Amino acid sequence: MSNMLQTKTAEEILTTVFKPKEFIIDGLLTQGLYVLAGAQKVGKSWLAMDICLSIATGVSVLGRGTIQGTALYLCLEDNYQRLQRRLFKMNAEPIENLHFALAADKIGAGLEEQIEAFKKDHDDLKIVVIDVMQMVRSNVESSYGSDYAELIALKQVTYRLGICILMIHHMRKAKDDNPFNMMTGSTGIGGATDGNFALKETKCGSGKAIMYCQGRDIEYTELRMHFDTDVMRWIVENEPATQKSRDNIVLSAVYLFIKERIHFEGTATELVAELKSVTDEVIYPNRVTRDLVQNGYELSKYGIDFRYERVHKGRVIILHYNGERDSSDGRNVTVTQALPDSSQSSI
Known about the structure:
The chain is of the alpha/beta class and 347 residues long. It folds into two domains: 12-236, 3-Layer(aba) Sandwich (Rossmann fold); 246-338, Arc Repressor Mutant, subunit A. It has helices spanning 10-14, 44-57, 80-89, 111-121, 144-161, 188-192, 246-261, 268-275, 285-294, 296-299; strands at 32-38, 70-75, 98-101, 125-131, 164-170, 195-201, 208-215, 221-228, 233-236, 263-266, 302-311, 314-326. Strands 3-2-4-5-1-6-7-8-9 form a nine-stranded mixed β-sheet, sandwiched between helices. Strands 10-12-11 form a three-stranded antiparallel β-sheet. α4 (111-121) runs parallel beside α5 and α8 crosses α9. The longest helix has 18 residues, at 144-161. Mean pLDDT is 88; it is low at 334-347.
């Protein structure tokens, strides 16, 4: 029988080490399809340009770190003279990994193939900005079904190529307590995307705004910002301090333990008992397995091979340390100076 369902058991999913997503902007943008919406002339394009410049040069944006790579900006309502003025105003350097295009095909009529062809020529492509979304829409009608079906095609491209696509979109004038309900079009747009950002001025023309951020891979956040006309960039005012992850405490303890032991094979309960030699933190067996599975890919950077296998007596954790693959450069890692958070690490 053809087209049979391909399934995985809960056991397979919970015991498989998956390659984590790469955050090209820490905590905000990763691989997937995103929408940045705002009223006309609010400064969406300035923010989009800043994002592209920052990723292309590897500098922070919105107070957050970036992963450097190629950026493609489809500025479909502009011309090169206007782009040049904007770049000069932002004191941008002439860099070769930021590309612009003034025209593109529509979704379902060549756009997907154009992005794939660009990716083949630029393997380190991180982000594609489409400014504005309506310019690549094939359907004039805006209904939940049509909006969802059209954007899903682009979403599949992001997953296939491992890139981020950020679409610039408009917000309607009608007020709503939920800023995401002010996005032009149906709720199918928000339903199809991996994340949405709503840039809303606190007062028209004030240069002050709140950017509401929500998504499948990011925590809900409200960024209070002001537009700095000296550098033509949005500046975040309320970025919260980074909190230490408890998962990292577990990983640090594992690192200290296995670096001395070299090899371990045993149950989660047995591992927790061994970890007491390097930390006074309370670590539970049902947590240590989860932490290791979720961070197994990150552990490999520190020379730690991790497997979780079924044997006759149940499931056992297997850890092995290889110092030649340890990227920590021999630094002194303690349970209070934890390994990097794998949920937002470069891969």
